[in-house]
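Progress note, project year one: complex with zinc ion.
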Amino acid sequence: MLGKDHVSITLGTVFPFTIPLIFSDNPQPVYAFCVLVAAIIGSLTPDADCGGKPKLHYDFKIVYDLMVPLHKLIVFSFSFFNLKEKMNLEYVVEEQHRGVMHSPIGVLISSFVLTLLTTIVGYFIFHGINATLIGFLFLGLISGQFLHLLEDSCTVSGIRWLFPFGTGELKGSIYTGNKIEGKKDIRPLLYRISLLFFSAGLLILHSLGAIDVNDSGIYLLIFAFVALIWGLIFLTAKIDNDNLWMQDAKKVRELERAVNRIGKQDTVKKRRNLGNKRL
Ligand SMILES: [Zn+2]
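Model obtained:
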């Protein structure tokens, strides 16, 4: 999906949960703001591993600049498991395909690393740590990134949820980016509008006194409605989950062959370097 679709669908999903934080008798607008900003950053983070950069990465270049070293760091951290080549490969061989940042494991690591970095920087600036704020920051980052994976799962390119341990994919029927034969897929727009209507409805009900945002059950109610909307999103995006459990033997073989090829190239390079040094 496009950057603007990721940002708006993610915000539409996360915003209803911040309404009780903003409008309760004991309002916590700073925490709500923190979750929303972190969710926006999280919604753009996974695209750091894509060959074709989304437009928003140019508009918010700082986010992208931060994500590139993060992507490299995650790939590096996997070198201990001997999976580094496989992930590098995914990025090099099939540039437009989605790599490690588009996987649950990448989402978890990058959310953790980003939270840690922000905490360290914050500590040096403010000489203290607000554990609740950090908790909300992590929550925003991980939900933003996780939603990005769900959103991309609705597209024809799909997501490899088991990456790098499997080749199975979850994919839908949404085309984004290029228009096909002059037609444009309006489903992302409809998803955005549905989520927006839900938030607006909540705010109206709150202002009319029809719902109590101080009630502890409010989050359950919001979760139920958001889950319902997402159920409809999956249904209309025609997500095919049969592929998730299928290992593509041909792709695995291709991957192994390419790993061997890169391995051989590395050995030749190393020998050449060694030879040069001797000379
Ligand atoms: Zn993506």
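The chain has two domains: 3-247, 248-279.
The radius of gyration is 21 Å.
No further modelling is planned for this target in the current period.
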